Prior knowledge:
alpha+beta; 6 helices; single chain
Amino acid sequence: MLASQIPAELRAWLYAEGSLTQQLTQLGQGKFRVQPFKQHFQRLSFVDAKWMQMPYQHTAWVREAYLYGSQAEPWVKAKSIFPILSLQKKARIFQHIGNKPIGWYLFQRTTPQCERRVLWLEDGWTRQSCYTWHGCKFIVQESFLPAFYDFIQKQ
């Protein structure tokens, strides 16, 4: 799909700066939760390694989770990719946060450097952000699910 096909209501969310955690919490009138469903190690994809300027042979720790607002259905499917090199630095905290949102730590008293790309994936319109935070590089991918799109259309 082409970027010109992004629904207007979703465009602002895909390109928004700052903490998605905070933005979803506001939209959900204070309701927000994270439900991790998969955590594992995997080799970096060639595309992700190139984007982070790391060797593609490197292993990464990957956390996948659903983000919920005020509805029973998840709003966002999130996937965070932390290369081992980043986990040996300050980003190692992310491997131990359980069901807490990454954004709570990422944007606490800092504004990390961020490169963003928006694309259509199997789960829907997705934003991928490559963050540089305290010298650590990692990717946070957020796919906005149909329940979220339905909710914002009714607002």
